[in-house]
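Tip: read the tokens left to right.
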């Protein structure tokens, strides 16, 4: 299905009718804004195009907006301003996207501008910067101070200067805003907004022979003429070695990267400059795609096993009657090969394909496999890419360069207009849920709606599906295909529970390591096999406490302890980013007995290097993967056998495939299981099963998993050992039904925030009471303080709204909730209160 941009103005005479455009602005206001379309722009303006508009008092700000609707009805409540500029001849946003933006804003109870702000890469949004220029009508130099006179003298030489540039001229300590205000008051300068587009194409400078020398006879004359100038002749000969224009003169027009000649040490750079000056060579610039290093497809043939082929055929059969199919395949069953087979079929039919992954770490490994099959026809989209790189993928989809994109959750906002297939891998992952800022969307659910509008099919894949998804499949709303055989005759690992409580009694524990785990790691090193160690907490230690007075280092902005990071010798808050130096003595009692308690990935890495000197240990968590290519580097080193042990948080549990990993060690399993949340058991099973699945993925060698726990008798751990997902599902779904939790209800969490604890509680109690009066006490839980009651100096209070599925008019209830929230926010006695709405909260 082709989505052609259209213009409302084709059937009207622009000079006879005044047109208006309803625009989406990237601001948190719950409505569209109507602007007048200048007559010169009317004919070419299309829905989905980006425009520049003034906004705010005295048009003080400039925004990039998207045209959502075109009409000839002026707004009734205000005088419409004019659109300043149209940025797109052909829209970069499709009508499907605008429809999706509207749905997200309604469903997730946020503003459409907030959706646009998250959806569009920053590089597609115009930025404005205040500039200052000299006022040519200024005639009173005697009014200027010495500093003002210096600034004005410089402004006379320049077309305009920015605030930062004026600050550097004025010198350290100068109050630049005050200086500019004074100059404006004296009418010596004019302040204006310079508007510029953030996206900057990557340009490369090339050289080519002048057209006069493209013919063979002319080229021979040139070479003869340069015989007396051997350095210049050598440059021409080097150029011809790269560009064989003797065989095909047209190759000359493509030219050669100038850097190739510049970087050749044996060539004279001054001679090259002379050749350019004498019009033998000419220089020119071309736009260089930032993904030009993607290798072409290598015609890799994907050979499916019998089980994979059967699963693929079953999925295609299910798609005939179902729009959504769940592929429930155990870890290591080769779901990726099934995905590739389905992607190939979709692309051959002329459709677009979106492949969603929950983590950037996963894209690093899977992209390499996909590129061997799809080459540079595949786009990659995630937050580690620069703004310019993301814009190029966006434009590549609009131009048709990319028919297939692999990306993380934000990829659902890309401008597809002919989707045939969406794959959501590891669909159970919480990483698909956006928490801050709004919209707090779930990429899996947004993908399903996107597919619905474009009549595409959705494949959800997981070894441990979310209970909600599996329930829909069991009810027949989704198709269900199961793949319970590991690829290449590999077998599931043996899982062993290690009783750390018993080992502590026997004094065989070494810090965080049981004797069983240490022995297994030593054996693995002797066999030259690799190990993965999972601890779902980063940093060195989560607590720093005084042994004498029990003082604990806490964040000044949040109600949490500070985490100790040994490598940087600092205490950090993982909620607001606050940092402190490590105290030498207790700030309360002055004692020197300040110790760290607990452990994180950094401490495990440190201890492993002590217990196994000479071994190669690498850590993968948020602290070690901040750099753009950090994921790729860590995975490449581990995959290449340069690392013996990989320590990490959740990001090492998700779909990574390493042939030589035969041992997985899991720490602190009890904390996962006993977390106070109705999904704790489900998530613990998913996490433990997923990380266990990293072991023994090579045929002929069974992996081993050691789970350290204080309570090995817990039922959930036995289900992990038996890989009993169905048993877990049956128990959990019954409990969910008994207590009316998803999938039998919808949850909306309302979080009231205010710097004053009393006011946040007052507002939350009033809101809960008003909601309870209408919806009833069984549907409203709270208000209550969350586990962390203060974040960034804001006191939090939660209210949970539970709505029975299929029994409530959810749209009407949401409208009612919004009305009650607006009542709170407009109450003068509750100023500065903010209320965060999280629909389908996790």
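Filled-in amino acids:
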């Amino acid at each position: 299905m082709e989505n052609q941009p259209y213009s409302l103005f084709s059937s009207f005479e622009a000079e006879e009718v005044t047109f208006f455009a309803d625009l989406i602005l990237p601001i948190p206001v719950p409505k569209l804004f109507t602007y007048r379309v200048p007559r010169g722009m009317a004919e070419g303006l299309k829905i989905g195009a980006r425009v520049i508009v003034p906004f705010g008092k005295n048009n003080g700000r400039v925004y990039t907006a998207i045209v959502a609707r075109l009409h000839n009805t002026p707004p009734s409540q205000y005088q419409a301003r004019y659109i300043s500029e149209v940025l797109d001849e052909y829209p970069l946003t499709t009508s499907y996207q605008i429809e999706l933006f509207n749905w997200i804003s309604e469903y997730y109870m946020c503003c459409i501008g907030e959706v646009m702000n998250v959806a569009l890469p920053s590089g597609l949004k115009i930025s404005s910067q205040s500039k200052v220029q000299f006022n040519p009508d200024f005639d009173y130099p005697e009014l200027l101070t010495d500093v003002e006179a210096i600034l004005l003298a410089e402004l006379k030489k320049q077309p305009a200067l920015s605030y930062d540039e004026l600050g550097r001229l004025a010198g350290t300590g100068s109050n630049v805003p005050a200086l500019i205000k004074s100059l404006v008051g004296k009418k010596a300068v004019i302040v204006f907004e310079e508007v510029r587009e953030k996206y900057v194409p990557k340009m490369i400078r090339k050289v080519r022979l002048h057209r006069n020398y493209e013919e063979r006879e002319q080229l021979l004359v040139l070479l003869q003429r340069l015989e007396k100038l051997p350095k210049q002749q050598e440059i021409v000969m080097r150029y011809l070695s790269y560009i064989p224009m003797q065989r095909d003169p047209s190759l000359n027009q493509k030219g050669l990267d100038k850097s190739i000649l510049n970087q050749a040490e044996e060539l004279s750079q001054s001679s090259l400059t002379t050749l350019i000056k004498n019009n033998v060579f000419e220089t020119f610039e071309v736009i260089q795609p930032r993904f030009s290093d993607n290798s072409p497809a290598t015609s890799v043939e994907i050979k499916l096993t019998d089980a994979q082929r059967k699963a693929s055929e079953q999925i295609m059969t299910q798609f005939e009657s179902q729009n959504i199919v769940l592929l429930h395949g155990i870890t290591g069953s080769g779901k990726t090969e099934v995905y590739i087979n389905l992607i190939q079929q979709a692309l051959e039919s002329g459709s677009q394909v979106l492949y969603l992954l929950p983590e950037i770490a996963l894209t690093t490994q899977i992209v390499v496999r996909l590129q061997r099959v799809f080459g540079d026809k595949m786009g990659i989209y995630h937050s580690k890419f620069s703004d310019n790189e993301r814009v190029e993928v966006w434009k590549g989809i609009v131009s048709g360069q990319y028919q297939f994109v692999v990306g993380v959750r934000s990829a659902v906002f890309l401008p597809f207009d002919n989707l045939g297939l969406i794959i959501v891998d590891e669909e159970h992952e919480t990483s698909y849920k956006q928490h801050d800022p709004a919209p707090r969307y779930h990429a899996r659910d947004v993908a399903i709606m996107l597919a619905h509008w474009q009549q595409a099919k959705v494949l959800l894949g997981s070894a441990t599906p979310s209970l909600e998804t599996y329930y829909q499949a069991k009810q027949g709303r989704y198709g269900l295909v199961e793949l319970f055989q590991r690829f290449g005759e590999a077998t599931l690992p043996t899982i062993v529970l290690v009783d750390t409580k018993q080992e502590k009694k026997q004094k065989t524990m070494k810090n965080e390591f049981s004797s069983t785990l240490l022995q297994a790691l030593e054996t693995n090193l002797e066999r030259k096999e690799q190990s993965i160690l999972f601890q779902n907490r980063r940093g060195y230690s989560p607590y720093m406490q005084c042994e004498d007075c029990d003082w604990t280092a806490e964040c000044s902005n949040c109600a949490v302890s500070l985490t100790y990071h040994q490598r940087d010798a600092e205490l950090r808050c993982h909620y607001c980013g606050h940092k402190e130096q490590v105290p030498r003595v207790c700030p309360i009692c002055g004692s020197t007995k300040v110790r760290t308690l607990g452990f994180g990935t950094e401490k495990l890495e440190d201890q492993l290097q002590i217990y196994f000197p000479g071994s190669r240990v690498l850590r993968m968590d948020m602290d070690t993967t901040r750099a753009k290519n950090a994921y790729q580097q860590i995975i490449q080193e581990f995959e290449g056998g340069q690392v013996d042990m990989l320590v990490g948080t959740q990001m090492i549990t998700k779909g990574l495939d390493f042939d030589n990993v035969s041992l997985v060690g899991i720490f602190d399993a009890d904390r996962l299981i006993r977390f106070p949340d109705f999904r704790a058991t489900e998530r613990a099973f998913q996490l433990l099963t997923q990380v266990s699945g990293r072991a023994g993925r090579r045929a002929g060698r069974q992996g081993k998993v050691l789970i350290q726990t204080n309570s090995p008798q817990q039922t959930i751990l036995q289900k992990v050992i038996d890989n009993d997902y169905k048993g877990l599902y049956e128990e959990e779904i019954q409990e969910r039904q008994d207590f009316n939790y998803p999938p039998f209800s919808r949850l909306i969490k309302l979080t009231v925030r205010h710097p004053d604890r009393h006011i946040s509680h007052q507002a939350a109690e009033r809101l809960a009471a008003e909601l309870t009066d209408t919806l009833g006490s069984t549907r409203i839980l709270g208000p209550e303080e969350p586990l962390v009651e203060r974040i960034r100096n804001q006191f939090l209070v939660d209210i949970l709204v539970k709505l029975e599925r299929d029994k409530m008019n959810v749209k009407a209830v949401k409208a009612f909730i919004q009305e009650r929230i607006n009542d709170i926010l407009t109450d003068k006695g509750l100023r500065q209160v903010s209320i965060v709405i999280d629909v389908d909260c996790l």
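The first strand starts at residue 19 and ends at 24. Residues 134 and 189 are 5 Å apart (CA to CA).
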